[in-house]
Every structure is written in structure tokens, then in C-alpha cells.
């Protein structure tokens, strides 16, 4: 089985097609060396087919069974079939259990368009030195009395799903989340209830087939650990160790994310926030039909089976 090659959504490397191909080649070698991905085509095909045959015995999941989707789950679980099966089950059951995140995902709906224009969730256009996808999460840019917190999470999940579909490198190196808490208020904090936080952590560590490599909080108020301790309560030990707080220091962020890939507003030299917002708005709206068609992939919880 040839390696599935989705179209890269944006410039993964230095901006040229040649640079992107080099980076992709390095990523595929990384997958073989660190994610247990078989180098042999037949062995890769056998692993994908084994997972697909198992899914045929789980029709209630209504899961995608194409090569690319199954490869993502295998990579996310280092090609361990039992772990991939658990994660697939969790993912498609979550898509049913949390309709406020996974139903009505039309990016042209006014509430979602508003958040896209605001740029609450902005993947950077270039990877970092380790190949990771840097995602800028502007957690308090919205008005908590106007925008639903569930829609904020929905936009984030929509763009992660879209990246998994279009960016092969993210499926290998994972995500580095930069959470900007500028402007956070009591109204924002009150929306982050323990049940909501528990669902969010469950999605990151137990459902999505992408590794969260680091979660770095910037422009954090002095009381940030009050909220973060609730998040940590639901995190496994590995994820807890990947949470870092930078306070108000942009220079501290620059030690872990190069200014060469950050927008100007974050002390970087790679374009502006408005350019990022415009790009992801156009890209998401252009994939409207894909979002609508994929809403059908969710578990039928009334007909679940082991």
C-alpha cells in the first residue's frame, strides 16, 4: 500500500514545494523510527486492513474506514492495534455524546463565522524546528456574554479535524498549543466548568489521533493555576508534564517557539494575525461541504456493542 498523501493545507516548511517535500520525507522517516510505522508497504497495508476489518465488526461506530483516517489513528497509537481501537471508539462515541461540538458544523453559520473572523484558533503557517504544528489559541478574545463556549470549542475541533485531513506532517509530529490568556475575565472563567474541562481533556488525550506535545500558556494572570489545577486533575501524568506557564513574558515564549514562525503581534516576523485569520476563514469556508458530509460519522449509542 503506497503511503496515503493528503494535500498539504499550507506551507509546512520554508514555503516552497521542494522544502515541503523534504520536510515530509523527514517526517516519514521519523514515523518509522519513533511511531513504529512499517517501512514495508505490505506491512503498512496489513496494519491498516487489520484495523479496518475490526471496524467492520463495529458498525455502530459509523467510523471512516479509508486508508488515511486509519493511518492517522495507527500513528497516534504507535501502531498498537488495541490502543488504536480504544481511541477510535472514544472518538466516534464522543462525536455523538458531545453534539454541541460535533453537530451543525457549517462554518458559514453566523456564530461560527464570527469566531473564525475573530481568530480564536489559529494554526501557524510554518512548523517549528521539530516539525510540530504550532496552534495559537486565543482563549479570551471572544465575549463570554455573547459567544457560547461550546462554539469556541467547536471551532477548535473543526480546525483540528481539517488539519488531520489535509496535513500529513501533523499526524506524525503532533501539536504544540500556545494558549493566549490576554483579556481573560471572570466571565470566561465561569464558562469553564469542571464537567466541560473534563470533556476537553478527554478529547485531547483519549480521542483525537494527534499528540499534544506541549501546552504553553502566555499572558496568564496570577491566578491561572486555580483553573489549570482543574485541568490537571483530569490529565494523565504525561500531559501534566507538558503544561507550561510563561506569565506575561513574550521572551519566555520565544525560547520555545521561534519568532521566525510567529506573527508580528507576538514578536515574530511571519506575517500578521489578520493574515492568519483571513487564511483560516477562507480555508474553513472552502471546506464547508466536507464538514457537512463528515457529520454522519458518529456512533449510534443506542446500538453499541463491545
UniProtKB/TrEMBL annotation:
InterPro entries in alphabetical order: CRAL-TRIO_dom, CRAL-TRIO_dom_sf, CRAL/TRIO_N_dom_sf
CDD domains named among the record's database cross-references: SEC14
Matches recorded under PROSITE patterns: CRAL_TRIO
GO cellular component: membrane
Gene Ontology MF annotations: phosphatidylinositol bisphosphate binding
CRAL-TRIO domain span: 109-274
Domain of life: Eukaryota
Name of the protein in its database record: Retinol-binding protein pinta
Organism of this sequence: Thrips palmi (Melon thrips)
Lineage: Eukaryota, Metazoa, Ecdysozoa, Arthropoda, Hexapoda
Amino acid at each position: 500500500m503506497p503511503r496515503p498523501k493528503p494535500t498539504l493545507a499550507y506551507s509546512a516548511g520554508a514555503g516552497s514545494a521542494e522544502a515541503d517535500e523534504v520536510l515530509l520525507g523527514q517526517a516519514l522517516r521519523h514515523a518509522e523510527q519513533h511511531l513504529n510505522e512499517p517501512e514495508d508497504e505490505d506491512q503498512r497495508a496489513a496494519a491498516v486492513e487489520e484495523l479496518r476489518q475490526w471496524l467492520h465488526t463495529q458498525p455502530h461506530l459509523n467510523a471512516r474506514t479509508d486508508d488515511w483516517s486509519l493511518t492517522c489513528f495507527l500513528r497516534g497509537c504507535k501502531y498498537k492495534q488495541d490502543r488504536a481501537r480504544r481511541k477510535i471508539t472514544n472518538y466516534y462515541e464522543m462525536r455523538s455524546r458531545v453534539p454541541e461540538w460535533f453537530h451543525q458544523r457549517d462554518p458559514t453559520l453566523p456564530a461560527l463565522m464570527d469566531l473564525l473572523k475573530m481568530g480564536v484558533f489559529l494554526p501557524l503557517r510554518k512548523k517549528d524546528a521539530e516539525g510540530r504544528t504550532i496552534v495559537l489559541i486565543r482563549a479570551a478574545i471572544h465575549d463570554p456574554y455573547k459567544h457560547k463556549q461550546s462554539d469556541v470549542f467547536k471551532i477548535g475541533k473543526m480546525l483540528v479535524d481539517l488539519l488531520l485531513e489535509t496535513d500529513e506532517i501533523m499526524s506524525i509530529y503532533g501539536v504544540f498549543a500556545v494558549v493566549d490568556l490576554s483579556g481573560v475575565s471572570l466571565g470566561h472563567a465561569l464558562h469553564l466548568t469542571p464537567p466541560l474541562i473534563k470533556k476537553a481533556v478527554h478529547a485531547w488525550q483519549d480521542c483525537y489521533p494527534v499528540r499534544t506535545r506541549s501546552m504553553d500558556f502566555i499572558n496568564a494572570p496570577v491566578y491561572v493555576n486555580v483553573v489549570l489545577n482543574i485541568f490537571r486533575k483530569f490529565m494523565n501524568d504525561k500531559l501534566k508534564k507538558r503544561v507550561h506557564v510563561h506569565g506575561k513574558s513574550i521572551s519566555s515564549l520565544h525560547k520555545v517557539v521561534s519568532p521566525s514562525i510567529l506573527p508580528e503581534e507576538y514578536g515574530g516576523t511571519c506575517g500578521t494575525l489578520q493574515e492568519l485569520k483571513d487564511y483560516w476563514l477562507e480555508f474553513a469556508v472552502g471546506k464547508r461541504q466536507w464538514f457537512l458530509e463528515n457529520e454522519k460519522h458518529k456512533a449510534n449509542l443506542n446500538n453499541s456493542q463491545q
